[in-house]
Every structure is written in C-alpha cells, then in structure tokens.
C-alpha cells in the first residue's frame, strides 16, 4: 500500500474528531471563535512537530522561496474564505443543495491541479471520484424532503452558488498547499509538509486574530477563556493537517481529497455505534458509494 493512503485515512479521522469537538465548542464561542481555535491553538503544535522533525530526526529546515511564500498565502486565505462560505450556507433555509455542491471539492481540486501543476488523473480514478461525490450528495440530501421543483429552484439559487464557491476555494487551497510544499528543497517529505503547514497556520492565526480584534473582540476573549477545551481542537486539527499536507506532498491532490471522503463514513459509524442514532437507508446507500469509491481509488486508481 502506498504511504499516502494510510496518512490520508489518519487525517480524515483526525478531522472528524476535530469537527466533533469544534461543534461542541461552538455553543460557547460562536462561529468565528470556534473557527479561530482551529488555527490559533493549532499553531504551537505545528511548530512543535517541525522542531521534533528537526532535532530528533535530523531533517533540515528548508529555506523559504518565493513560490512557497506566495502559494502559502493564497492557500491560507482560500481555506479561511472556504470555511466561512460553508458556515454561511447554514443561514439559508434551503441550504441542503448548496451543501451538496460544496462536496464537489475533489472535482474542482482535480481541475486546479491540472491548471496549476499540470497533473492528470486516470479515467478509472475519475469515475471513482464521481461515485464518491454521488455518495456524499446522497447523504447531504438524505433527510431533506426536496421536491423536483424545489431542487430545480435551488440549483440556480444563492445556496448553490455559495456551495460551489466554497468547494472551489477548498480545492484551490489544497492545490496551493501542495504547490508550496513541493517547492521546498533539500529536506524530506515530512519536513516539506511541516514547513508549509507552520507558515500557513501562522498566517491564518494572524489574519483571524486581527479580524477578531477589530470586529469581534468578545469572540477573541471567549476563545482565550475556553483554552482548556480549545487546545484539544487545535491539537487534533493540526494532527489532521499534518496528514493532509504530507499526503498532498506525496500524491495528486484530487486523489487525496477523494479518499478523504471516508471521513463521512467515520461520522456515521460514530453516530450509530457511540450515540445510538438511527441511520436512514439513503445515508447507508451513500456510505456504500463512498466506500466503493475509496476502494476503487486504492485498488484501481
């Protein structure tokens, strides 16, 4: 098995864990504060990871270059914008279709990867990606009673456009991070990923902290007051980011983001096994499609 596969699965698991803790924290902090702790409390862990690689595993820290600096900025800003757009979707009554569109990230990542890095995906992998996205869309719409007319109206509405924009920014940020990471020379893959991660997380922490100081100071105070819970969000978030950055340094972004859809399977397993929640048949069907897509990418893609 290629190394990027277990690393991606690990990253998806950590992201699932971080999201669960972030949702719990959102009740105390609000959207902005819960988003900030992912970066602000994650940054020290990113630095610690880089220092461990350098001092204990003797991996040299690469010198930054123009490509890394520019791509890191673009990736960090794009990820913040994508996150806010995704959260903004929930302010609409008919957000389900928009949310489903936001899950088209692997396709858009493949497009950006082709345009920016000249990367191609195989026909088999492309089919698997489409199957996986179909599964995600089925799950997204599973519990929403949508008539044909409602879907038709939603397709041209603001939620659909916001969903597509969110997916585009997520896809662009992933390609920008890969560009930043692979541009670094004179060190190993893990250190390439760690250096790009530290730079991007520092930028995101600074941007969000400045925003909160100027626009939402109460959110910043609440984020600091709830540090005992927030530190775990930061730790799990950075653990996932280490996985994402490393996997995307090793492999085409479209493959990594497609395999990452297994996160939804983790979500439903937790809902079923831990919280004893009832799972709809359509949600099970969506999970089956995602698993088939993941297996196809691993075995055939």
From TrEMBL:
The chain crosses the membrane at residues 35-57, 69-90, 110-139, 160-177, 189-214, 226-247, 253-275, 282-300. The keyword Transmembrane applies. The keyword Nucleotide-binding does not apply. One of its GO terms (cellular component) is membrane. Keywords: Membrane, Transmembrane, Transmembrane helix. This is DMT family transporter. Residues 4-140, 160-298 form the EamA domain.
């Amino acid at each position: 098995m290629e190394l990027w596969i277990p690393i991606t699965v690990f990253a998806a698991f950590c992201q699932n864990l971080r999201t669960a803790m972030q949702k719990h924290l959102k009740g105390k902090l609000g959207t902005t504060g819960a988003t900030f702790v992912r970066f602000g409390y994650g940054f020290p862990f990113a630095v610690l990871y880089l220092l461990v690689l350098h001092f204990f595993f003797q991996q040299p820290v690469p010198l930054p270059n123009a490509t890394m600096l520019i791509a890191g900025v673009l990736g960090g800003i794009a990820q913040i914008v994508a996150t806010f757009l995704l959260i903004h979707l929930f302010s609409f009554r008919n957000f389900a279709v928009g949310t489903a569109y936001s899950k088209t990230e692997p396709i858009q990542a493949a497009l950006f990867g082709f345009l920016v890095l000249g990367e191609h995906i195989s026909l088999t992998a492309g089919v698997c990606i489409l199957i996986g996205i179909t599964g995600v869309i089925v799950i997204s719409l599973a519990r929403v009673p949508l008539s044909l007319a409602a879907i038709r109206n939603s397709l041209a509405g603001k939620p659909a456009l916001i969903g597509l924009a969110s997916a585009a920014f997520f896809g662009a940020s992933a390609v920008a991070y890969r560009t930043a990471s692979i541009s670094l020379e004179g060190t190993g893959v893990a250190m390439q990923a760690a250096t790009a991660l530290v730079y991007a997380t520092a930028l995101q922490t600074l941007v969000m902290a400045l925003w909160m100081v100027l626009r939402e100071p109460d959110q910043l105070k609440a984020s600091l007051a709830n540090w005992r819970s927030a530190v775990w969000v930061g730790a799990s978030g950075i653990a996932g980011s280490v996985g994402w950055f490393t996997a995307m340094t090793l492999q085409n972004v479209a493959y990594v983001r497609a395999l990452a859809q297994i996160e939804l399977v983790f979500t439903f397993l937790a809902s079923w096994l831990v919280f004893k929640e009832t799972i709809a048949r359509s949600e099970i069907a969506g999970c089956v499609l995602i698993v088939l897509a993941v297996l196809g990418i691993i075995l055939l893609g």
